[in-house]
Amino acid sequence: MESARASIALGSDPPADKAATAVQTAARASYGRLIALLSARDGDIAASEDALSEAFAQALTHWPRSGVPASPDAWLLTVARNRLRNRFRNDTVKADAMGDLLLRLEERAQASAEIPDQRLALMFVCAHPAIQPELRTPLMLQTILGLDAGRIASAFLIAPAAMGQRLSRAKAKIKAAGIAFAVPDLEALPERLDDVLSAIYAAFGTAWNGVAGADEGHASLAEEAIFLARLVVSLLPDAPEALGLLALMLYAHARRLARFDADGRFIPLKDQDPARWSSAAIIEAEGLLVRASKAGRFGRFQCEAAIQSVHVQAPLTGATNHQAIRTLHEMLLQHRPSIGGFVSYAAALLAMGEGAAAAAVLESLAAEDVASYQPFWVTLCAVRQAGGDTAAADAARARAIGLTEHPAIRAFLLDSAARPPSDQRQA
Amino acid sequence: MQYMLIMTETETEIAKRNDPQHAPAYWSGWNAFVTAMAASGLVVSGNGLQPPHTATTLRVRDGKRIVQDGPFADSKEQLGGYYIIEAPDLDTALDWAARSPAAAAGSVEVRPVMPAPESPPAA
User: Fold this and answer.
1) CA-CA distances (angstroms) from residue B93 to A179, A254, B4, B49?
2) pTM of the full structure
3) How would residue A207 be classed by pLDDT, with cut points 50, 70 and 90?
4) Angle of helix A45-66 versus helix A72-85 axis, rounded to 10
5) Is the dihedral of CA A239, A240, A243, A244 positive or negative?
6) What does the pLDDT read at residue A5?
7) Which residue from A310, A316, A340, A422 lies 20 to 30 Å from A129 (Cα-Cα)?
8) What's the sign of the alpha-carbon dihedral A385, A387, A388, A389?
């Protein structure tokens, strides 16, 4: 199904017209808010998307003639609700009712109070444990942000038709299974919020590790993930892990321009020019992390953000505080052991000159868990190189190259065969 | 809306029903669960089922009845009972599923009951 946001962008070219611009603005700013409110009533996201699409189409024909209403969102909501109500009626009836309705819309829209924000509830629906984990991120991108299935599909390397089908099935399940449009109670909140935050982070990871830079769509998927995290923070301002996730993504996003040189060649973290990091993003991230720490509750995202914080401080202090990074990694692994966590830990140990300990950490991981995990092979290559085992280093590098998706990173790894080892993990 | 909680149990678990050593604990667990669920006023209907070896499975193929001794699928977990409950949403149904002894020793499938077909209002 084509999203309203996408169809507006195509349908109103050129956007010189004020009314068309107003429709576009409403589509960008209010899409998720309106979908959340419409579908909260009976859980039917697909029908709400159709109704809102039709409301946007109505706005495109109506607003240029009658002027932009005082409250565009309330206008769109009323038209979409009417569409939902009249779903079973035939087109003639619909058209007649619409003509009459539009006359009265303006005054109703004026009178309606501010539209309540149900987007947080909708995010909890999208990331519900009853929804397949790999569909939670696409669902959120489509329902909250209005991205179309085609664009989501290309970000996740799936055929658009297949992605569209999976999304429709997931929406059908949400309605049929009666998943509640509600923010979970306090007892269930931390665990359920973790699912929401993980789904947002997955969108960011897709942008970061994929062919970012080579593809504008991916680059802005990182920004969409940041938008979602900002939304969670604004609706749950005291959730430390939401603050931690936003901080973590901002630290990484701050360095995005420094990751590649003018010719598109990859630059690892330790060789990056800190002047090309976004200081505004880093300052914001630091502030968020301080705010999160006030809750006094340790969490995975806060810890990962803290590791990033230490890394960005290196250019200021002239040296990386390896001991702090090591301690943070150990806390993270104690709290939530993961393959990625162990590999990062090994890289941190290697960076502080403890190659043997780093090798032991890598060797402790099960072969089937790391077989297609690129960062493992990059780190193993560096560890073997440091240990003087060139043959093993070359073999690990070859595995890493075979697992690399990003052309610039592949080129960097191919080049690095001729150079001393470089840690590109933290890039 | 209505949900069916489909309780599946392992062979070991079902065997406890008639094992003097394990039966008291087995039955008191189920009784406590069923009583609590009934007290909540959610239960529409439901029953435990006799063990899988009492089942008879029938198929009609090419107009011929094929009757087979035993349950439809020979799997490690077997249907042990079912309840239909009226719950406001999936999370409430999952909460009750989690309290059932089958959740810890087998599994509980939670399925929405199909609503009566909606007929579109006349235009």
Assistant:
1) 10, 44, 9, 21
2) 0.80
3) confident
4) 130
5) negative
6) 54
7) A340
8) negative
| Residue B63: CB atoms within 10 Å | 5
* Cβ atoms of residues A148 and A6 within 8 Å: yes
The candidate with the shortest Cα–Cα distance to A377, out of A346, A408, A333, is A346
> Which residues does B92 contact at the CB level (< 8 Å), separation at least 6?
A180
**Residue among A385, A425, A392, A421 nearest A409 (CA):** A425
Provide the residue type at A120 as one letter.
L
Residues in chain A: 427
Contact state of B112 with A177 under an 8 Å Cβ cutoff: yes
Neighboring chain B residues of A179 at a CB cutoff of 8 Å: 89-91
From A88's Cα to the closest Cα of chain B, the distance in A is 6
CA dist., res. A152 & res. A405, Å (int):
18
Q: What angle do CA A35, A38, A43 make, to 5 degrees?
A: 95
Q: Record the tokens describing residue A117, joined without a space.
A: 């924000």
Question: Quick one: pLDDT at residue A349?
Answer: 95
Provide the CA A294 distance to its chain's centre, in angstroms.
25
Q: Does A89 touch chain B (CB under 8 A)?
A: yes
